[in-house]
Design brief:
Largest sheet: 2 strands, parallel
CATH topology: Four Helix Bundle (Hemerythrin (Met), subunit A)
CATH superfamily: dinb family like domain
Number of domains: 1
Distance between the termini: 21 Å
Number of strands: 4
Strand content: under 5%
Order of helices and strands: HHHHEHHHEEEH
Helix content: 55-70%
CATH architecture: Up-down Bundle
Oligomer: single chain
Strand order of the largest sheet: 1-3
Structural class: mainly alpha
Number of helices: 8
CATH class: Mainly Alpha
Length: 203
């Protein structure tokens, strides 16, 4: 598969992800902290399976996109894990998020992503994995510190389209859990696909 074709598939994947992100979050069932806790725990267990594979650490400095190594992508995931947890804490206080991370139509929050990955570059892969683990536990703990109405009440969050910064996305804390799970599984699937293309086999 050519590099150009892979980039085209990645862009199609990103556009589908962005459409899902920007759609209003409407839970179909009554949500409880325990169900959201389990979503985050399942996500963490899936990550641990990837992280524990021999090839993961051994190939951390190989490019997995046109710009990022496997370690860089792990730093990106750690950055968003912390950011979404921080925004959830603001929503838990009953207010919307007052700052914005601007999403370009193509490529998402390119500047923010680049800056946060650069900040994390001095960390080891083990530290980045530990940060994702730590942020997951902090988010899980938050779920049990709030009542159900707070969990599902929607507020403006700190994300808005570059072309319409006055129109931030609207989410609840439950919606942020969903966003995190979708975002990380998107990248997890790309890592697994990359591994199979490069080395074959399963995890």
């Amino acid at each position: 598969m050519s590099h150009q074709h892979i980039e085209m598939l990645l862009q199609q994947d990103w556009n589908q992800l962005l459409r899902h992100y920007s759609a209003p979050f409407r839970p179909s069932i009554s949500l409880r902290p325990a169900s959201l806790w389990i979503h985050l725990e399942d996500l963490l267990l899936e990550w641990r399976e990837v992280w524990s594979s021999d090839w993961f650490a051994a190939n951390q400095n190989k490019l997995i996109t046109s710009e990022w190594t496997l370690k860089d992508l792990t730093a990106h995931i750690a950055s968003w894990a912390g950011e979404l947890r921080a925004q959830a804490e603001i929503l838990a206080g009953g207010a919307g998020v007052s700052y914005q991370i601007l999403f370009d139509e193509i490529g998402g929050p390119r500047s923010w992503n680049a800056e946060t990955v650069a900040v994390h570059r001095s960390q080891s892969l083990e530290e980045l994995v530990g940060e994702i683990e730590h942020e997951t536990v902090r988010f899980q703990d938050l779920l049990y510190e709030i009542d159900v109405p707070t969990l599902v009440t929607e507020h403006p969050i700190g994300i808005a389209p570059t072309g319409a910064p006055e129109k931030p996305w609207i989410r609840s804390i439950a919606g942020l859990v969903e966003m995190r799970c979708i975002h990380e599984r998107h990248h997890m699937n790309r890592i697994i696909q990359w591994k199979r293309e490069e080395f074959g086999g399963d995890l």
